[in-house]
Amino acid sequence: SDYFRGIANCIATSGTSTLFWDDLWNGKIRSVSYPNLCSHAFDRDIFLANIHSQPFEDCFKLPLPYEAYVEFMQMKGELDSLSLRNQKGDD
């Protein structure tokens, strides 16, 4: 529910139940931290595991304006350093 969004922190172990853009995970809500990039996403309701398992650029309407591209590069760095476990559900 939206009531807990930004309050409840997801521990993204597998990413299968963590919403990439709108859940709080690793200390950030990506739709707030990366608003320009988020506005170019094909799917605002994608799970972290799904976005992590495909080429990151395939998730966005291209070409990106400069501000969104800067956020894209920052987010790509975050995703490249993220390791998810192959299990069902998150904590």
**How many β strands by DSSP?**
2
**How big is the Rg?**
13 Å
- Overall SS class: mainly alpha
Proportion of residues in β-strands:
under 5%
- State the helical fraction: 25-40%
Give unreliable regions as ranges: none
Q: How many domains would you count in the coordinates? A: 1
Q: Can you write the helix and strand succession as a string?
A: EEHHHH
With strands numbered from the N-terminus, the spatial order across the biggest sheet is: 1-2
Shape: globular
Q: What topology emerges from the helices and strands here?
A:
Layout (H helix, E strand, L loop, with lengths): L8 E2 L13 E2 L4 H4 L1 H4 L9 H5 L13 H15 L11
Parallel strand pairs: 1-2
Protein name: Reverse transcriptase zinc-binding domain-containing protein
Task: Give a structural overview.
This protein has about 90 residues and is mainly alpha-helical. The protein has one domain (about 1-80). It contains 4 helices and 2 strands. The protein has helices spanning about 30-35, 35-40, 50, 65-80, and strands spanning about 10, 25. Strands 1-2 form a two-stranded parallel sheet. The longest helix has 15 residues, at about 65-80. This is Reverse transcriptase zinc-binding domain-containing protein.
Report a brief summary of the structure.
This protein has 91 residues and is mainly α. The chain is built from 4 helices and 2 strands, in the order E-E-H-H-H-H.
Q: What tags apply to this protein structure?
A:
91 residues; mainly alpha; Reverse transcriptase zinc-binding domain-containing protein; 31% helix; two-stranded parallel sheet
